[in-house]
């Protein structure tokens, strides 16, 4: 359990939420933990709302993990030159590239100034474009830091499903302070939004086999006694209200609760809907894994493209020459990954069609048909899982595997001057051929 304190700016606490900033111009506010976290690896789940009357909002909201508390400053209401990481939900498009609202992950070692004019694009470690303003349900964000890898998942708030997360960003080889403060901040500018935080849950992640510290070692004895006293007080209040309700409604006691029982058809429908819900969750999980794999493949392709461009520009090689066979092996591996991803997507499409066929069960034949559909769906899901596991194992980094070799410099087979001369000669020959054909056709017409 974390103890929060409010900064002296524009944040307003209430019983069920904290309004970091109101929809007024030039407002700033932040909330930070009182004590440092001692987690090496952690996960946070944040629920918030960003609402405003305008089509465009400003400035945005930020979730922090920093070595020191950034109570006040120009970066979404918090201090600049932080040591840690900030996940920014930027509402306003400062650079005019039409890439906002967006989610940006920016790390800092305590020496960098945030680039406001470019919306932090020059400093972003990862980003995704998501609209989080004026949603029917609260927006949920899950941020995981485990084994030097930061992953951001987001629930856009279109449905009431709390687990409907989508992959947003991933940063590998990220070093954060071993201890730090969690915080939330927000700011408004010429345009304004209400930034409300509904919940902030923090979880400690441990490696398998490591001993988890006991709760007594984490919570001071004084705070523990205080929490125990509050719990006993709430328990007494609850018992008192129960007694008052029983005195005011004596007829309710002893009556059977008919709503606790269900008919056979209701139970069958409930089981069908629960099965479909589990299938949907499995498909969403597979979609997230596919997005992560495709994002990793895009980074690989981008790195290879940059290396080819450098070699074409005449940069010297730093890791020696490689053979054409090794290059072809890398290309074939990429093609195999793309083929397997397409197969997985086709299998998921077949699964969705099977689900749509099981939406309206009726009578005994309908129940039998639904059972057959679920068996087919299970088989498809097993195939998809096996493909995913095989694909992940192929792309898992291993210390035993050698890194992909650098491409050799391409030989200059044809200079620019030779190419230009070749084009000119071809053009002259083509024009001469056209003129010769025209003369032959004109001479032939004279005989008719």
From TrEMBL:
<feature type="transmembrane region" description="Helical">
    <location>
        <begin position="417"/>
        <end position="436"/>
    </location>
</feature>
<keyword id="KW-0812">Transmembrane</keyword>
<dbReference type="GO" id="GO:0000139">
    <property type="term" value="C:Golgi membrane"/>
</dbReference>
<dbReference type="GO" id="GO:0005537">
    <property type="term" value="F:D-mannose binding"/>
</dbReference>
<dbReference type="Pfam" id="PF03388">
    <property type="entry name" value="Lectin_leg-like"/>
</dbReference>
<protein>
    <submittedName>
        <fullName>Lectin, mannose binding 1</fullName>
    </submittedName>
</protein>
<dbReference type="InterPro" id="IPR051136">
    <property type="entry name" value="Intracellular_Lectin-GPT"/>
</dbReference>
<feature type="signal peptide">
    <location>
        <begin position="1"/>
        <end position="17"/>
    </location>
</feature>
<dbReference type="GO" id="GO:0006888">
    <property type="term" value="P:endoplasmic reticulum to Golgi vesicle-mediated transport"/>
</dbReference>
<keyword id="KW-0472">Membrane</keyword>
<dbReference type="InterPro" id="IPR013320">
    <property type="entry name" value="ConA-like_dom_sf"/>
</dbReference>
<dbReference type="GO" id="GO:0033116">
    <property type="term" value="C:endoplasmic reticulum-Golgi intermediate compartment membrane"/>
</dbReference>
<keyword id="KW-1133">Transmembrane helix</keyword>
<keyword id="KW-0430">Lectin</keyword>
<keyword id="KW-0732">Signal</keyword>
<dbReference type="InterPro" id="IPR005052">
    <property type="entry name" value="Lectin_leg"/>
</dbReference>
<feature type="domain" description="L-type lectin-like">
    <location>
        <begin position="1"/>
        <end position="205"/>
    </location>
</feature>
<dbReference type="GO" id="GO:0030134">
    <property type="term" value="C:COPII-coated ER to Golgi transport vesicle"/>
</dbReference>
<keyword id="KW-1015">Disulfide bond</keyword>
<dbReference type="GO" id="GO:0005789">
    <property type="term" value="C:endoplasmic reticulum membrane"/>
</dbReference>
């Amino acid at each position: 359990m974390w103890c929060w304190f409010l900064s002296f700016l524009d944040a307003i606490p209430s019983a069920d939420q904290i309004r970091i900033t109101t929809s007024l111009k030039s407002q700033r506010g932040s909330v930070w933990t009182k004590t440092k976290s001692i987690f090496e690896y952690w996960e946070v789940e944040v629920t918030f709302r960003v609402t405003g009357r305008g089509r465009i909002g400003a400035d945005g909201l930020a979730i922090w993990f920093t070595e020191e508390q950034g109570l006040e400053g120009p970066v979404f209401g918090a201090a600049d030159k932080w040591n840690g990481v900030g996940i920014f939900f930027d509402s306003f498009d400062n650079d005019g590239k039409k890439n906002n609202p967006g989610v940006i992950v920016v790390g800092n070692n305590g020496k960098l100034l945030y680039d406001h004019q470019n919306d932090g694009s020059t400093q972003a470690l990862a980003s995704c474009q998501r609209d989080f303003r004026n949603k029917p349900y609260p927006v949920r964000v899950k941020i995981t830091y485990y084994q030097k890898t930061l992953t951001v998942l987001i629930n856009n708030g279109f449905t009431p499903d709390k687990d409907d997360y989508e992959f947003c960003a991933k940063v590998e080889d990220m070093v954060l302070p071993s201890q730090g403060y969690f915080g939330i901040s927000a700011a408004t500018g010429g345009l304004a939004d209400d930034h409300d935080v509904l919940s902030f849950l923090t979880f400690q992640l441990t490696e398998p086999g490591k001993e988890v510290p006991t709760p007594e070692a984490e919570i001071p004895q004084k705070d523990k006694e205080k929490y125990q006293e509050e719990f006993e007080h709430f328990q007494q209040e609850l018992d008192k209200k129960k007694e008052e309700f029983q005195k005011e409604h004596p007829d309710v006691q002893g009556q059977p609760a008919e709503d606790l029982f269900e008919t056979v058809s209701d139970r069958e429908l409930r089981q069908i809907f629960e099965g479909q819900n589990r299938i949907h969750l499995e498909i969403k999980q597979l979609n997230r894994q596919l997005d992560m794999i495709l994002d990793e493949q895009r980074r690989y392709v981008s790195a290879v493209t940059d290396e080819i461009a450098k070699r074409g520009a005449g940069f010297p090689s730093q890791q020696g020459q490689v053979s054409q066979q090794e290059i072809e092996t890398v290309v074939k591996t990429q093609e195999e990954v793309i083929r397997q991803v397409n197969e997985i997507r086709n299998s998921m499409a077949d699964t969705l069609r099977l689900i749509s066929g099981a939406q309206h069960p009726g009578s005994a034949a309908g129940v039998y048909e639904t059972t057959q559909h679920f068996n087919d769906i299970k088989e498809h899901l097993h195939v998809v899982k096996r493909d995913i596991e095989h694909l992940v194992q192929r792309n898992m980094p291993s210390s035993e595997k050698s890194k992909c070799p650098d491409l050799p410099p391409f030989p200059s087979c044809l200079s620019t001057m030779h190419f230009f001369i070749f084009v000119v000669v071809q053009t002259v020959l083509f024009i001469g051929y056209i003129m010769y054909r025209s003369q032959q056709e004109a001479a032939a017409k004279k005989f008719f």
